[in-house]
Design goal:
single chain, 218 residues, alpha/beta, Glutaconate Coenzyme A-transferase, 11-stranded mixed β-sheet, 3-stranded mixed β-sheet, 14 strands
């Protein structure tokens, strides 16, 4: 069974380490805030000017003035700080963000990412993605393994305009957890009930399978 968006976020949350400063991109990545492992402290950063994002608010407790970069209502944690976007991007460009989690339209086996534009469609702009992929110490992508047409988004080469080159370290999809290596995608884990053969059939890029591949456990 393919992972839900929430399960993708839950799996990525295991990559967080105590003391990390983390930026969560729009879409599936924002859900990671709901699954911070107990016993560790991380500081979530939003490029619109906030350090210290908490879980999403309960229904009826939303504050319309308190939003993340994706314009979703959020909560804060004790010690949160607000500032302008210039200071926020100063933090990003200075390499203060330990981990960035981004959504993507395509990822290549070399770690290239395309996540901002589909030619011929209206877009609001690249946003902070270009700065994040150029400056973050570690980048994990959260996305579906295939597009709505059933075509692989895990490719040998990206076909859409690139956001960043050789920057993605790990990809978590609804089917698999993949490391990006010099030799290609290395299959680390598979979604419960999803076979290695299915993952191979839906991965256009080079896929390395070594030994038995465990299922993602929750």
């Amino acid at each position: 069974m393919a992972l839900t968006k929430e399960q993708i976020a839950q799996r990525i949350a295991r990559e967080l380490k105590d003391g990390f400063y983390v930026n969560l991109g729009i879409g599936i990545p924002t859900l990671v805030a709901n699954y911070i492992p107990r016993g560790i402290k991380v500081v979530l950063q939003s490029e619109n000017g906030l350090l210290g994002i908490g879980p999403f608010p309960e229904q009826g407790q939303e504050d319309p003035d308190l939003i993340n970069a994706g314009k979703q209502t959020i909560t804060t944690v004790p010690g949160s700080a607000f500032f302008d976007s210039a200071m926020s991007f100063g933090m990003i460009r200075a390499g203060k963000v330990d981990l960035t989690v981004l959504g993507a339209m395509e990822v290549s086996e070399k770690g290239d990412i395309a996540n901002w534009k589909i030619p011929g469609k209206m877009v609001k702009g690249m946003g902070g993605a270009m700065d994040l992929v150029a400056s973050a110490k570690n980048i994990i992508v959260a996305m579906m393994h295939t597009n709505p047409k059933g075509e692989s988004k895990v490719l040998s080469h990206c076909t859409l305009p690139l956001t960043g080159v050789r920057c993605v370290k790990k990809v978590v999809t609804d089917l698999a957890v993949l490391d990006v290596t010099e030799a290609g995608f290395r299959l680390l884990e598979r979604a419960p009930g999803v076979t290695v053969e299915e993952i191979k059939s839906k991965t256009e890029g080079k896929l390395i399978v070594e030994g038995d591949v465990a299922e993602v456990a929750f």
